[in-house]
């Protein structure tokens, strides 16, 4: 009975994580698009600014570029985790657990890294509402992804 309960808990976390990773990817895509459109223009006769950063994002602070980059990587790994998780939930046997658990672990570590940059971005303070939303989702995803990993291991 506990095995079936863990399957439904894992499915709930899987659905929740998919929705949040999709939102993170959407906001991250907006941030990257805005950075590309409004970034530095370097051409003939132009010099690099004194404190040029290749991950410059005009809407945040010094940590924004790193945060958005790693949040996008975590989002892609999270969606891959959902794909492997759906396969595992469908079959729910020990043979499908290693692939689901390994990509879930990778997604969690990337989300944990993005959470570190989110905390730094919060500390530096200058950011807009979309970035604050993305920070909140990354921090929540750090916990829910860990709970998902525990749920799929608990059902094994």
From TrEMBL:
Keywords: Membrane, Transmembrane, Transmembrane helix. The keyword Manganese does not apply. It holds the Pfam family AWPM-19. The chain crosses the membrane at residues 12-32, 62-85, 97-117, 137-155. It comes from the Eukaryota. PANTHER family: AWPM-19-LIKE FAMILY PROTEIN (PTHR33294). This is Suppressor protein SRP40-like. It comes from Hibiscus syriacus. The lineage of its organism: Eukaryota, Viridiplantae, Streptophyta, Embryophyta, Tracheophyta.
């Amino acid at each position: 009975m506990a095995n079936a309960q863990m399957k439904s808990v894992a499915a709930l976390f899987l659905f929740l994580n998919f929705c949040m990773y999709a939102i993170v990817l959407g906001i991250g895509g907006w941030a990257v698009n805005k950075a590309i459109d409004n970034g530095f223009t370097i051409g003939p006769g132009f010099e690099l600014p004194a404190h040029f950063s290749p991950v410059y994002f005009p809407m945040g602070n010094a940590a924004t570029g790193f945060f958005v980059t790693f949040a996008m990587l975590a989002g892609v790994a999270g969606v891959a985790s959902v794909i492997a998780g759906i396969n595992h939930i469908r079959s729910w046997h020990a043979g499908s657990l290693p692939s689901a658990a390994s990509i879930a672990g990778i997604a969690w570590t990337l989300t944990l890294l993005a959470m570190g940059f989110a905390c730094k971005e919060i500390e530096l303070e200058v950011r807009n509402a979309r970035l604050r939303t993305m920070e909140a989702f990354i921090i929540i995803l750090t916990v829910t992804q860990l709970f998902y990993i525990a749920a799929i291991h608990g059902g094994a």
